[in-house]
Amino acid sequence: MSDVVDLTRQLIARPSITPDDAGCQAFVAERLARAGFACEHLRFGEVDNLWATHGGSDAPTLVLLGHTDVVPPGPSEAWASDPFDPVIRDGVLYGRGAADMKGSVAAFVIALERFVAAHPAHAGRVALLLTSDEEGDAIDGVRRVAEVFRARGERIDWCMTGEPSSTAVLGDLLRVGRRGTLSATLTVRGIQGHVAYPEKARNPIHQALPALAALTARRWDDGFETFPPTSLQVSNIHAGTGANNVIPGELQVLFNLRFNPLWTAARLEAECEAVLRAHELDYEVRWHRGGEPFHTPEGPLREAARAVLGAHAGAPPEESTGGGTSDARFIAPLGAQCIEIGPVNASIHKVDEHVRVADLQALPGLYLALVERLLVR
Question: Which of 42, 75, 247, 368 is in Cβ range 3.0-4.6 Å of 49 for a Cys bridge?
Answer without folding.
Answer: 42
